[in-house]
TrEMBL record:
A Pfam family that the UniProt record links to this protein: ADH_N
Oxidoreductase recorded as keyword: yes
Family: Belongs to the zinc-containing alcohol dehydrogenase family.
Start and end residues of each Enoyl reductase (ER) domain: 14-337
Keyword Ribonucleoprotein belongs to the record: no
Signal peptide: none
Alphabetical UniProt keywords: Metal-binding, Oxidoreductase, Zinc
Name of this chain's protein: Unannotated protein
Ranges in coiled-coil conformation: none
Length: 342
């Protein structure tokens, strides 16, 4: 079968002919319906070499149908629609046993994160899942539309749930970035809270999309001082930064109110947090993905029509061109690879 694999660090992946996976004891093979195209993949391609075995297949936002069950697997049937949870932890530590494998205690930070991030992922026709606990039921969902939800919706959902006590009626929230993660974060905020939503982006087309989704205010990011003036100093309860740059972090530190909350979702710039260096009583956190239970909740939101990804479909043969478009900021919403397309 064909698979889009990273074979060397700091080089673009390539389509390669590989052996189709076979389910061993306790394993499941999934026939891929779709796999999301994520910025994280670009960081893996161009970032420093990692302690991951090469080659491996990209694709960590993958949906599909159970194709083969290994010996001993219970509770699943061939043909079941599933979403593959992307964080593969140890399964036994205190966090993993509560489905928070994104915060696995025993797994070293340099170890592979999961399918598509160090282990073979979903940019192929078939994907091997080593443990059925990573399969979340996806009955009643369009599996192509659902694929981006596994990261691009789960990540902001996890961040929003951590800040939920501050997102009361009358609160004001700033969201940096209205692209792949941002357009889904807007929908989650609207579904779960009554906060006023302020969106900042460098692309007017993405701000126009944010307006279509019902946000209260939009601002084009041109420079730090004018943006702070437009939003207002100490006028914001919560900031979600899906961009992660020194400029966005600097603006956040100036617009958040005392007692407010800054959540760094993107690959964040630096912020010196010290007494009298930042606004009093603020909390600054980083987040990583989300829990398996939260993924089930995200899929429920989609099932009930509260969450819809803006999706552009690509055939497996066109996946390299799709990543180039993503790299140049030319993709609205989320790109998705569909094996049978074209």
């Amino acid at each position: 079968m064909l698979a889009y694999q990273l074979t060397e660090w700091n080089k673009w992946p390539s389509l390669r002919e590989v052996d189709a996976p076979v389910a061993g004891p306790g394993e499941v093979v999934v026939a891929v319906a779709a796999s999301g195209i994520c910025h994280s993949d670009l960081h893996v391609m161009s970032g420093p070499p990692r302690r991951w075995d090469l080659p491996f297949t990209l694709g960590h936002e993958t949906t599909g149908w159970v194709s083969e069950l290994g010996q001993g697997v219970r509770g699943l049937s061939v043909g079941d629609p599933v979403a593959i949870y992307g964080c593969w932890g140890c399964g036994t530590c205190r966090n993993c046993t509560t489905t928070a494998e994104n915060m696995c205690i025993t797994k070293h930070e340099s170890a592979p994160a999961g399918g598509g991030l160090g282990y073979n992922g979903g940019m192929a026709e078939l994907m091997l899942v080593p443990d059925p606990r990573w399969l979340v039921p996806a009955l009643g969902l369009d599996l192509v539309q659902a694929a981006p939800l596994l990261d691009a919706a789960l990540t902001p959902y996890h961040a929003i749930m951590r800040a939920l006590p501050l997102l009361r009626p009358g609160s004001r929230t700033v969201l940096y970035g209205a692209g792949g993660l941002g357009h889904l974060a807007i929908q989650i905020l609207r579904a779960l809270t009554a906060t006023e939503i302020v969106v900042v982006d460098r692309a007017q087309s993405k701000l126009d999309h944010a307006r279509e989704l019902g946000v209260n205010e939009t601002y084009l990011f041109e420079d730090v001082d004018s943006l702070v003036s437009s939003i207002g100093r100490r006028s914001v309860d919560v900031v979600f930064d899906t961009v992660g740059s020194d400029d966005t972090v600097l603006v956040s530190s100036r617009v958040v109110r005392p007692g407010g909350h800054i959540c760094l979702i993107g690959r964040a710039g630096s912020l010196e947090v010290a007494f009298r260096k930042v606004t009093a009583e603020i909390s600054v956190i980083s987040t990583f993905w989300g829990t398996r239970n939260e993924l089930a909740e995200v899929l429920d939101l989609a099932r009930h029509g509260a969450l819809t990804a803006a999706v552009e479909q690509f055939a497996l043969a066109d996946i390299a061109a799709a990543y180039e478009r993503l790299e140049h900021g030319e993709m609205r919403g989320r790109g998705v690879m569909v094996p049978g397309l074209g």
